[in-house]
């Protein structure tokens, strides 16, 4: 909803107010949206709520009901906080959130120091295990072929059998090893992203 649409609907809902009270309310909200600026207009409208709910709040504050109308004066301050007050409140909230995040990081620093070490170790060790079995299997395979070619049949067959066993193990473990390293990397990335969002005071996008 644009600012003009909000003002038009608000004016319709305020028809029951006296002309002076309605003019004061409309002037206030028009000034509010102008101060917010075009780039923040949508956020300002969303912050205010629906025109109907705003009108009901104004009517209640003015003291108008279906039976009678009072001459109670309503000032702009009664409608809502000014943009400057809202920005000040938001800044205080952001500062408090950042301080809280820093305190949490300090208290949990042993975890944040140990976790990267554990992550780095797992990411290196898991693929290394799979690669080691693969290299050992290939080496045993070539050694067996060389032994057979050299006339050492028994040793050659033993080496070939060992090569098949080692390569078989490799076929079973290579995917879990690489998959585990990848999942640990994603987990570490998500944790870092969450901490960063907490520090800057923004919610993480899903």
Number of helices: 8
Based on secondary structure, the structural category is mainly alpha
* Main sheet properties: none
| Beta-strand share of residues | under 5%
Q: Can you offer a commentary on this structure?
A:
With 206 residues, this protein is an all-alpha fold. The protein has 2 domains: 3-80, no CATH class; 103-200. 81% of the residues lie in helices and 0% in strands. The chain has helices at residues 3-13, 19-36, 41-48, 51-62, 76-79, 83-107, 109-149, 153-200.
Overview in brief:
With about 210 residues, this protein is an all-alpha fold. About 80% of the residues lie in helices and about 0% in strands.
What is the topology?
Layout: H1 3-13, H2 19-36, H3 41-48, H4 51-62, H5 76-79, H6 83-107, H7 109-149, H8 153-200
Helix pairs in contact: 1-2, 1-4, 6-8, 7-8
Task: List key phrases describing it.
2 domains; 206 residues; mainly alpha; 8 helices; single chain; 0% strand
């Amino acid at each position: 909803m644009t600012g003009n649409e909000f003002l038009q609907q608000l004016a319709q809902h305020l028809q029951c107010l006296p002309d002076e009270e309605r003019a004061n309310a409309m002037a206030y909200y028009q000034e509010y949206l102008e101060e917010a600026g075009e780039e923040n207009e949508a956020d300002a409208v969303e912050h205010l709520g629906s025109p109907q709910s705003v009108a009901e709040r104004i009517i209640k504050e003015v003291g108008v009901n279906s039976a009678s109308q009072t001459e109670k004066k309503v000032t702009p301050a009664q409608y809502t906080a000014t943009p400057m007050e809202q920005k000040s409140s938001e800044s205080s909230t952001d500062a408090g959130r950042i301080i809280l995040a820093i305190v949490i990081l300090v208290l949990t620093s042993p975890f944040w120091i140990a976790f990267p070490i554990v992550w780095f170790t797992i990411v290196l060790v898991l693929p290394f295990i799979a690669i080691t079995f693969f290299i050992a299997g290939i080496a045993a395979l070539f050694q067996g072929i060389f032994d057979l070619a050299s006339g050492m049949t028994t040793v050659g067959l033993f080496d070939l059998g060992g090569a098949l066993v080692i390569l078989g193990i490799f076929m079973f473990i290579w995917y879990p090893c690489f998959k585990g390293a990848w999942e640990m990397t994603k987990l570490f990335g998500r944790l870092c992203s969450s901490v960063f969002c907490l520090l800057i005071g923004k919610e993480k996008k899903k």
